[in-house]
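step=encode ok
step=design start
structure_in=
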């Protein structure tokens, strides 16, 4: 829950600051953040991206030596309780609020879709570099993280919402925790 709140705090500040501007409103600020359900078409795109990102994560995990998954500090099958499932989902949603909702939205508006999406995907990769502190042999997860960031950023742009991407992110993280121990 703490991570969720920390990821969402900058977005909440953004919304309140934008809503207080003379030409702003709360609804306009939420729209810029991408707080919307998304169209049925966006959810179809999300299903396709879910399949791709699951494949990327699984493929990346196959490149990691089995001995890495059994080391102290590496937890396989972490999402085995209701609290763990809730934590995985909340973290994924919080990351989407921050990286695709706030950061992606701002960067794509200021730099254009291509450069803004590349920038948010690169920034999304930064906290995931901590995986290397566990073991440098988990490096195959990093390109998968970057591509996932690009795909979720593209989906955020197309859907004008981070919500479908948050569902994809949560599903991939749950699958990683339940099935093969990698994290996304």
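sequence_out=
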């Amino acid at each position: 829950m703490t991570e969720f709140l920390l990821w969402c705090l900058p977005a909440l500040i953004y919304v309140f600051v934008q809503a207080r501007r003379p030409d702003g409103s709360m609804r306009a600020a939420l729209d810029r953040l991408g707080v919307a359900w998304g169209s049925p078409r966006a959810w179809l795109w999300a299903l396709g991206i879910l399949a791709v990102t699951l494949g990327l994560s699984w493929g990346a995990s196959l490149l990691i030596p089995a001995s890495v998954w059994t080391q102290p500090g590496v937890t396989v099958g972490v999402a085995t309780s209701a609290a763990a499932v809730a934590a995985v989902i909340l973290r994924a949603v919080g990351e989407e609020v921050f990286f695709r909702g706030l950061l992606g939205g701002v960067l794509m508006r200021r730099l254009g879709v291509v450069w803004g999406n590349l920038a948010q995907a690169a920034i999304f990769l930064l906290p995931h570099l901590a995986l290397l502190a566990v073991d440098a042999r988990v490096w195959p997860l990093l390109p998968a993280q970057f591509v996932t960031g690009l795909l979720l950023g593209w989906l955020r742009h197309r859907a004008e919402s981070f919500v479908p991407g948050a569902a994809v992110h949560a599903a991939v993280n749950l699958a990683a925790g339940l099935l093969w121990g990698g994290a996304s």
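step=design ok
step=annotate ok -> The longest helix spans residues 82-111.
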